[in-house]
Design brief:
heterodimer; A: 5 helices; about 80% helix; B: about 50 residues; alpha+beta; 1 helix; about 45% helix
Chain lengths: ~170, ~50
């Protein structure tokens, strides 16, 4: 188990990287809106070229840091990783979003490469708004779960609780 | 074991909370919509992928 000071430090880091991930995702949405709505070709090209920079330089490191700090916090505190539904679901959704993001990187690179080629018409590229908007919506679910911490023990959590209570019940 | 009406019974695990079921249904619906959109919108995943 983590000590109170280590727990507090890790919680601060976890909050910083996870909220930072959402902020970066919102920036990515804004760049996509720019890429789709702008009329100036240079602006559109610049928006597409920025996408892999934000993806690889900001989104992926923050996503990985969020998953790692989340797992460490869960395992290092009485909450556990599989004891409460909100922790398990939150981890599942976060890990899913991070995996999809990493798997989507080649597609972002491909978009940027096409936009970088002066022979291509950037207005035909179609952007990446659906992925970015979907990601941002998905990330709000763990945020709500982590803040509200709704009740509900998993079967494993319930068995653990029963096991811990049993020695006290027997004289 | 818990005593219930004079008979010793194994305690039953609590029922799955309603919010878990609701969230599960919402995620399934969103996944279905996402898969449909992937095939409807041409692009990296859609029909235009191998063109």
């Amino acid at each position: 188990m983590l000590g109170p000071r280590a727990r507090k430090v890790l919680l601060i880091v976890h909050l910083a990287v996870s909220v930072g991930w959402m902020g970066a995702a919102a920036t990515y949405v804004a760049i996509n809106v720019y890429a789709l709505a702008a009329t100036d070709e240079q602006t559109i090209r610049a928006a597409y070229l920025l996408m892999p920079v934000i993806g690889r330089g900001v989104l992926v490191p923050l996503a990985v840091a969020t998953v790692l700090t989340g797992i460490t916090l869960a395992l290092g505190t009485p909450w556990g990783l599989m004891r409460h539904y909100w922790v398990t679901i939150s981890l599942g959704i976060t890990a899913f979003a991070a995996t999809i993001l990493i798997l989507h990187l080649p597609a972002i690179d491909s978009l940027a490469a096409k936009a970088g080629d002066p022979n291509n018409r950037v207005s035909d590229l179609g952007g990446d708004l659906l992925h970015s908007l979907g990601g941002l919506i998905v990330l709000t679910v763990p945020l709500v779960l982590n803040v509200t911490k709704p009740r509900g023990l998993t079967r494993y959590g319930w068995r653990e609780q029963m096991r811990r209570q049993q020695p006290r019940a027997v004289p | 074991m818990v005593r219930k009406g004079g008979v010793m019974e194994e305690p039953k695990p609590p029922a799955r909370p309603s919010w878990v079921i609701g969230l599960g249904i919402a995620i399934m619906i969103l996944l279905v919509i996402a898969v449909i959109l992937m095939f409807v919108i041409p692009g990296e995943h859609g029909p235009g992928r191998h063109m």
